[in-house]
Amino acid sequence: MVYEKQTEAIRNCCKTLLKQDKVDVVLGYTQSSLDELLIPFFVRKVEDIDKLAWGDQCWQNLAPYLHSRKDRVGIVAKPCDVRGIVQYIAEGQLNRDQVYIIGVDCAGMIDEEGNPRPGCDECRVHAPPLFDTHITDDRIPQIKAAEKKSETVQQKHTAERFQTEIDKCILCYACRQACYGCYCKTCFMERGTPDWLPAEIDSAAKKTFHMSKAMHLAGRCVECGACEAACASGVELRYIIKELTDFVEDNYDFQAGMDLSAVSPMVSYGDGDKEIGFLGGDEA
Ligand code: SF4
Ligand code: SF4
Ligand code: SF4
Known about the structure:
The protein contains eight helices and five strands. The protein is 31% helix and 10% strand. The protein has a five-stranded mixed sheet. It has helices spanning 2-19, 79-90, 140-150, 162-168, 174-178, 203-216, 226-230, 238-252; strands spanning 25-31, 38-43, 73-77, 99-104, 133-135. It has 284 residues and is α/β, with parallel strands linked by helices.
């Protein structure tokens, strides 16, 4: 019932946006013809609005579709998508006035067995931190209260399982392609000088890729889980980036994508900055 209500509210908002020529296109979700999934959908004509849908299968992060766009876009955005959008604006990749955010409260996306999808299993942000229209979900206060209670039993992430996870990796880069934050035209792995790209997929190349990617996402990860969802080899490396996310939050009081006016610690420098070693170790 809650999803029907949210779908109706999304359709009404999008209809107004297109009719009043406030946007050129609306980006949302529609029912896949192949399975239960709700897949990304671009709407340019009012008559297609009723194809828009919302539910617990909208797990794909839509923020990457906004990168490099020049037109005016209305976007149906979950909190993790909104965090990516905020980061794009803060990083100069998108103008605030070209995007209309229909921010939707999110109780969590589920897989075929009904379990929380990667990202949703550890989600801390169920309401959009920025929006032009807010589509609410009455279940969110209850979900937040339950999460607060279980905080203390959450497992502490460690770097110990790195090799086990790396062994499963086939270096296909699907995780990179799925991440809102990986938008370099040419990834460092493919630049040629120096030549990081191996002739064979060896352990060293995989470590180089994953450690460097983690550093590039330090203080930028919006915890959407799209990287793990995209990995066909079942590699679970989000925990490394989570370590960096916690480090940035603990030491610099910064959470990616939550506040348009907050300055990211990775792009600011001050005389009083703490000199902390990698992941809190001794100073180098
Ligand atoms: S990570 Fe959070 S906001 Fe994103 S889909 Fe999962 S529950 Fe929703
Ligand atoms: S972690 Fe998975 S998606 Fe990423 S490069 Fe390795 S196999 Fe591909
Ligand atoms: S690293 Fe993974 S969880 Fe973080 S923003 Fe990128 S896709 Fe999302």
